[in-house]
Amino acid sequence: MKKKFLIGTGLLTASILLLILFKQSNLQNTSVKHNEVSESINSEQPEQEVINDVKDITPISDDVAESIVEGNEKSSNNFRAFDCKPTLSLFERSQYELFANKTSIHEEFANVKNDAARYLHASVALFDNNLDGEIDKKRILDKLIDSRGKTEYPKLVDLLLLKYCTQNTNQCEQELIDQIVDDNNYDGAFHFIMANHYLKHGESSLAEQELSNFVSSNTITNTFGRSVYAFHRGMQTLGYDNTMLNMTAGVGYAARAHLHSWQPISMFCGDEHNAEICENIGYTLSRLGNNFMEHRMGEVITEKSKQLSNSTEKEKPQEIKRTRRNFEDSFVGQPELLKMDKQLADYFMEEFGRVGEIKAIKNTNEKIAQLLSDPVYYPCDEQ
After folding, report:
1. How many CB atoms lie within 10 A of CB 44?
2. Are residue 136 and residue 250 in the same domain, yes or no?
3. 235 and 330 in one domain?
4. CA angle 332, 338, 339 (to 5 degrees)
5. What single-letter DSSP state applies at residue 132?
6. What is the 3-state secondary structure (H, E, C) of 143-212?
7. Which of 120, 193, 239, 282 is a Cys-bridge partner for 94, taking CB atoms 3.0 to 4.6 Å apart?
8. Under a CB-based contact definition with an 8 Å cutoff, are residues 49 and 114 in contact?
9. Does 241 lie in the same domain as 174?
10. Do residues 337 and 345 touch, judged by C-beta distance below 8 A?
11. What are the tens digits of pLDDT across the range 326-364?
12. How many domains does the chain have?
């Protein structure tokens, strides 16, 4: 009897052990299958996953500001080409689009992931006056300063800092501004920001030196810069005062930087008293321009200026108002246009609205993305 009981107990124990082992085996198989399915999904939709990742950190709030340039300093894609290829365009278009809460730029640069998104939002937080009082801009500024030279995107950080510091000189040390320009001496974008800064403060000799540095530097902006500098010097030779020089230099700065860009020249050339001067500006640019975009801008300046000068007294008020809007509509100055043919450029000129109010961009994302990755258009001689 005792022997039978032991045998029965042994069989029961063995059955229980086998049942446990069987369940564990099933769980492991299920886990493996689940992982395989997850990996398959992830491998099939990597871009969508990254896009969601980027959008997860919008919009900026006071909480996000605390860690805006901290965290994942290494992009998983190791996209180092970002710093010398689309950096300027990314910086410019972040201002151009994100000021108006546009998000298409996230999709075009989805593979850059968190670092780039942090700096984009940092730029919006710093430059957007609507956020004054809502977030601690000084804290963001300090973190950007502290991140200099510590990230994969040093040029983007420096561009943000220099642009902000020249607009808010009371918040930055002059030593910091000088250091940023020295560290990026080969890049004309920094020289052009400084030229504009000096012109605004009436330091024409320093501005002229920076414009000269801009023209001679190795940069994606130097093609347009040669025309800007040419008619800036032309206006100087003709004897126009500093106000005129400020405006002519502002044309080129606005055309490339896109920071509420064409408003100064549109207001200036929208005044019939400046029609003759604007005709000269337009004619010079149309003759000296290095590509279709520059010729086209010069032609439009000349055309609109002639319309103003030929207006009757009765027509002038309405004409001036419409011309100012037409200038802003025509001179978005997107750098991508420089590589486009005449027909497409004309289409963009007509379809783009004011800066930050894009009407046509969603139909051209593919073309723009292709241009942004063009190694010829974005030289990278430094790396």
Report:
1. 9
2. no
3. yes
4. 135
5. B
6. HHHHCCCCCCCHHHHHHHHHHHHHHCHHHCCHHHHHHHHHHCCCCHHHHHHHHHHHHHCCCHHHHHHHHH
7. 120
8. no
9. no
10. yes
11. 333 333 443 333 333 333 334 333 433 322 223 333 333
12. 2
pLDDT in tens, 8-32: 556 556 566 555 555 455 444 444 4
CA distance 197 to 200: 5
Assess whether 350 and 229 both reside in one domain: yes
Same domain, 266 and 151: no
In a domain, 210, yes or no: no
Task: Answer whether residue 152 is part of any domain.
Answer: yes
* CB under 8 A, 24+ apart: contacts of 169-177: 171/138, 171/141, 172/141, 176/145
Report the C-alpha gap between 2 and 67 in whole angstroms. 72
d(CA 333, CA 349) in angstroms, rounded, equals 9
Per-residue pLDDT tens over the stretch 156-203: 678 778 878 888 888 899 999 999 999 888 776 677 778 778 877 878
Closest CA to 200 of 145, 247, 158: 247
Together in a domain, 101 and 153? yes
The answer to whether residues 235 and 149 belong to one domain is: no
How many whole angstroms separate alpha carbon 146 and alpha carbon 139? Answer: 11
Q: Which value, to the nearest 10 degrees, does the dihedral of the CA atoms of residues 15, 17, 19, 24 take?
A: -170
Tokens of 170: 């009371």
Question: What whole-number distance in Å separates Cα of residue 289 and Cα of residue 296?
Answer: 9
Strand partners, 135: 132
Domain-ending residue, one of 162, 184, 206: 184
For residue 148, give both structure tokens: 């200099």
Rounded Cα gap, residues 371 and 135, in angstroms: 35
Rounded-to-integer distance, Cα 8 and Cα 28, Å: 30
Per the CB < 8 A criterion, the answer to whether 213 and 191 are in contact is: yes
Does residue 24 sit within a domain? no
User: What is the value of pTM for the model shown?
Assistant: 0.37
Residue 112 lies in a domain: yes
Domain that holds residue 352: 221-364
Instruction: Identify any residues that bridge with 229 across adjacent strands, giving them in sequence order.
Output: none
> Do residues 173 and 247 both lie within one domain?
no
